[in-house]
Design a protein that fits this description.
Length: 480
DNA sequence: TGAAATGTTGGGGCG
DNA sequence: ACGCCCCAACATTTC
């Protein structure tokens, strides 16, 4: 038998627009498909629970696609560099191909792997595919990375248009060499004793086909109203592709091209899809940030924030996590997250501001919670988002930008539909009071069946006071 | 990808 | 008729 190519799947669990797979298939060599569940190399940033659930489904779907082509997706756990090298040796691979990482942990795994493969005399080739552009491509004139989104996006757009996405290779010679393999079950990616994944199953199809369906649905209509609808959490204005982009069941380039092609085909042109494409560029910006500032997930990029007087309070943190803060829009968001593994982006900003400014709990606590509970948990997006909302990032909201949860709710959930959906104990309150039930007249509360402190908590902090305290804390930071 | 505080303007009530 | 005041509406500044 010809020497196979070992295809190490990472966050690229798809067949379409997969440069490493395409290159491997092109030569006609047999391809051994391998996925390694490696928690150790990522340390405290090993995948969280919700994204493990999503991963399980994506692996099953990919395994099925590989099986349909005569092969078998080999599943292993352990240090990826060790496992990949040992499988490469066992199958006498000619080469190992994979999709490149951009986070510091993945990059060091790759460096160790390259060294091991070098010793074995096996070719090692890393391909793009996780991002549309490489982070090294989009730099300022002086070679420094951009620190502000707008100029980054301008420069990003000014580059040559990306290549069109690659189709699924017509012929892929996936091999089944009878290698020992875990199963998706033995990898224990899904919850068992308390099965909290019911809401996730109802929401997501974690497969390449699921991603394709979402993309098609989105481009059939919602994309044209994206700019108008995206900020209203009760509307289905977004694509919901984020978990697929995080795990690679769709490529960002495919999404980008599909949007542009649809704009073209319907005679609308680029501006019609820019608000949506812009979100893809934000993702590129986040990964550029992480690539150039590898401490992004753990340390504030504005170092003075190391000295910020946080107010750590486990009781308040738990109330936030459980969606029992007494601020309906915050609680709705946190419960949507818990139930579905996803939260509307506008609401992510509101709950983030509430945690870091109103409760003055360190942004890393929020980042951790999101990391564990989001199906779309993405190291760069998550870290950048939390640093942004806390005011310590490089293109961050100024420290004094404190969201008022009631005003935000009235503005972006004017009828209260979002709150009604996720905080059912308030569902019968009229829109006038639903975002601040503590101000509602007793009779209104009674008619809606709301008993503050019993059926729904009173606010755990007073926003007016918390806001002033946060500003004082920031002032203390500035004067040193 | 804010919100609150403060300043300005102009219409209208009223002595 | 006039000046004064109030205050809503809007703009600007500040946090």
């Amino acid at each position: 038998m010809m020497q196979p190519i070992l295809l190490w799947f990472t966050r690229d669990l798809r067949l379409a627009d997969h440069p490493a797979l395409d290159a491997a298939a092109r030569g006609g060599d047999p391809i051994v498909a391998l996925f390694v569940l490696d928690d150790a190399s990522w340390g405290s940033w090993a995948r969280g629970a919700a994204s493990r659930w999503f991963l399980a489904g994506a692996l099953e779907a990919l395994a099925s696609d590989v099986r349909d082509r005569g092969g078998r997706l080999v599943l292993r756990r352990g240090r990826a560099d060790e496992v990949v090298a040992s499988v490469a040796r066992a199958v006498r691979a000619r080469a190992v191909f994979w999709t490149r990482h951009y986070d510091p942990w993945g990059r060091s795994v790759e460096r160790r792997l390259e060294a091991r493969l070098g010793e074995l005399g096996v070719e090692a080739r890393a391909f793009p595919g996780f991002l549309i552009r490489e982070p090294q491509e989009v730099l300022q004139r002086d070679g420094e990375p951009y620190r502000v989104f707008t100029p980054f996006s301008r420069a990003w757009l000014a580059h040559q248009p990306p290549h069109p996405p690659l189709p699924v290779p017509a012929r892929i010679a996936f091999a089944d060499l009878g290698l020992p393999s875990e199963t998706v079950e033995t990898l224990a990616l899904r919850p068992t004793k308390p099965d909290w994944a019911r809401g996730l199953r109802a929401c997501w199809d974690p497969s390449e086909r699921g991603a394709e369906a979402l993309l098609e649905r989105f481009l059939e209509g919602p994309v044209w109203n994206y700019a108008r609808d995206r900020d209203f959490p009760a509307r289905a204005g977004g694509s919901r592709l984020s978990p697929h982009l995080a795990i690679g069941t769709v490529s960002p380039r495919r999404v980008y091209w599909a949007a542009l092609a649809r704009a073209e085909a319907t005679g609308r042109g680029f501006p019609a899809v820019w608000p949506f494409v812009r979100q893809l560029v934000w993702r590129e910006f986040a990964w550029s940030n992480l690539f150039h500032f590898p401490e992004l997930p753990d340390r504030p990029l504005r170092r003075e924030f190391e000295a910020f007087p946080w107010a750590i309070d486990a009781r308040l943190l738990r109330a936030w996590q459980k969606g029992r803060t007494g601020y309906p829009i915050v609680d709705a968001g946190m419960r949507e997250l818990w139930t579905t593994g996803w939260m509307h982006n506008r609401v992510r900003m509101i709950v983030g501001s509430f945690l870091t400014k109103d409760l003055r709990i360190p942004w890393q606590e929020g980042e951790r919670w999101f990391w564990d509970t989001l199906v779309d948990a993405d190291l760069a997006n998550n870290a950048m988002g939390w640093q942004w909302v806390a005011g310590c990032g490089i293109d961050a909201a100024p420290y004094f930008r404190i969201f008022n949860p009631v005003l935000q709710a009235k503005k972006f959930d004017p009828e209260g539909d979002y709150v009604r959906r996720w905080v059912p104990e308030l569902a019968r309150l009229p829109a006038a009071w639903i975002h601040e039930p503590w101000k509602a007249p007793p009779l209104v509360l009674e008619e809606a069946g709301v008993r503050l402190g019993l059926t729904y908590p009173p606010p755990i902090v007073d926003h007016e006071i918390a806001r002033k305290e946060a500003l004082d804390a920031f002032a203390a930071l500035r004067t040193g």
